């Protein structure tokens, strides 16, 4: 340490490292906390709609405008938070996925070195955890934001007022329209469909599979090359030894 091993310098170094770790960990924890709050709010709204639907259809149609306004307020909260977190989500994908591929390559191709391998495994788990946790919590918010759709499809509109039918149609158009949730730089909305079946998710899956395949082929090629070189060295060594023995016998 440049300031010696005094207690004061060690305490200052510890505080600085804690703050640096907080700058890396706390944004992800903050996203998870806000996603949990939004999930609970959307769940409470959906449960209120389901309870109102099960007790009395007329009460649901009467309170439909109130439910729709509450849902719009929650969607506005999601939009405001998305403006804050969209860059962080995109940065997490753009930086962590290549690092994960590089660490996998290092673990597969390099010989096992105790401390270095443990460090690579640690950072591999950390980067994968960041990607998975952000994707999971963001996808849950998207699912809960659209969770009232099934309940509204069960509403019977016979005998309803025109205003109530309009409110129902507006509510349904909001739920079936553009996806509600957090985005990666406003390009894609993070959801289960995006992760598993959408084009972006398919492209990421194909890239990861190709990278892992290339890592495997490269490791096998390097292993075969090293084995071939070792075999040639052994063959040349044996040939030189044989020639040396023959030469000595000839001189004798």
Automatic annotation (TrEMBL):
One of the record's GO molecular function terms: signaling receptor activity
Membrane-protein topology: Multi-pass membrane protein
Keywords, sorted A to Z: Membrane, Receptor, Transmembrane, Transmembrane helix
Pfam families in UniProt: 7tm_7 (PF08395)
Localisation: Membrane
Protein source organism: Pomacea canaliculata (Golden apple snail)
Biological classification of the source: Eukaryota, Metazoa, Spiralia, Lophotrochozoa, Mollusca
Residue ranges of the TM segments: 20-40, 88-108, 120-140, 200-222
PANTHER family in alphabetical order: GUSTATORY RECEPTOR (PTHR21421), GUSTATORY RECEPTOR 5A FOR TREHALOSE-RELATED (PTHR21421:SF29)
Keyword Kinase among UniProt keywords: no
Annotated protein name in UniProt: Gustatory receptor
InterPro entries hit by this protein: 7TM_chemorcpt (IPR013604)
Broad class of the protein's primary localization: membrane
Keyword Manganese in annotation: no
């Amino acid at each position: 340490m440049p300031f010696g091993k005094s207690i004061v310098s060690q305490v200052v170094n510890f505080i600085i490292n804690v703050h640096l770790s907080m700058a890396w960990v706390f944004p992800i924890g903050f996203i998870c906390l806000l996603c949990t709050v939004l999930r609970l709010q959307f769940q409470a709204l959906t449960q209120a709609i389901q309870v109102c639907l099960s007790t009395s259809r007329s009460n649901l149609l009467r309170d439909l405008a109130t439910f729709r306004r509450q849902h719009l307020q929650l969607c506005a909260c999601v939009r405001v938070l998305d403006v804050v977190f969209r860059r962080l989500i995109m940065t997490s994908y753009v930086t962590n996925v290549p690092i994960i591929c590089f660490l996998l390559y290092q673990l597969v191709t390099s010989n096992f070195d105790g401390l270095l391998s443990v460090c690579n495994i640690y950072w591999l788990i950390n980067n994968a955890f960041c990607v998975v946790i952000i994707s999971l919590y963001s996808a849950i918010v998207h699912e809960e934001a659209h969770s009232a759709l099934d309940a509204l499809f069960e509403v019977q509109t016979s005998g309803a007022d025109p205003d109530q039918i309009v409110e129902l149609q507006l509510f349904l158009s909001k739920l079936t329209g553009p996806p509600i949730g957090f985005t990666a730089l406003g390009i894609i909305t993070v959801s289960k469909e995006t992760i598993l079946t959408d084009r972006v998710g398919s492209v990421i899956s194909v890239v990861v599979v190709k990278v892992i395949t290339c890592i495997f082929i490269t490791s096998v090629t390097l292993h075969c090359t090293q084995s071939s070189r070792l075999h040639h060295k052994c063959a040349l060594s044996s040939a030189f030894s044989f020639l040396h023995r023959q030469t000595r016998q000839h001189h004798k």
